[in-house]
Specification:
- There is one protein chain.
- Helix content is 0%, strand content 40%.
- By secondary structure, it is mainly beta.
- Strands 2-1-6-5-9 form a five-stranded mixed beta sheet, with no helix packed on it. Strands 3-4 form a two-stranded antiparallel ribbon. A two-stranded antiparallel sheet has the order 7-8.
- It has no helices and nine strands.
- The chain is globular and about 35 Å long.
């Protein structure tokens, strides 16, 4: 399953969870704020290994490391999808 990349709305820390966690509530590991894991995400492929990552709207334009090959790339564009039930 792809990972969901999103930001803590309180401290701005970049967070990553498995997409099975979409819609669940977690605590930020840095500031302990209560966060809902996004259900509406965008999909982007790593240019090197073609691993798909899912990301929230607030991550557009951010640079991340691919969870598989560690290549850095920018998150951008795409049509939103909903992971919720």
């Amino acid at each position: 399953m792809p990972d969901i990349f999103f930001k803590c709305g309180s401290c701005g820390k970049h967070l990553v969870v498995d997409d099975a966690g979409a819609g669940q509530t977690i605590n930020c590991p840095d500031c302990n704020a209560v966060l809902a894991v996004p259900e509406n995400v965008f999909i982007r492929e790593c240019l090197l290994c073609k691993t798909s990552v899912e990301f929230s709207d607030d991550m557009k334009g951010e640079i991340i490391s691919c969870p598989f090959c560690q290549k850095k790339f920018s998150l951008s564009g795409g049509e939103p999808i909903n992971l919720g039930g």
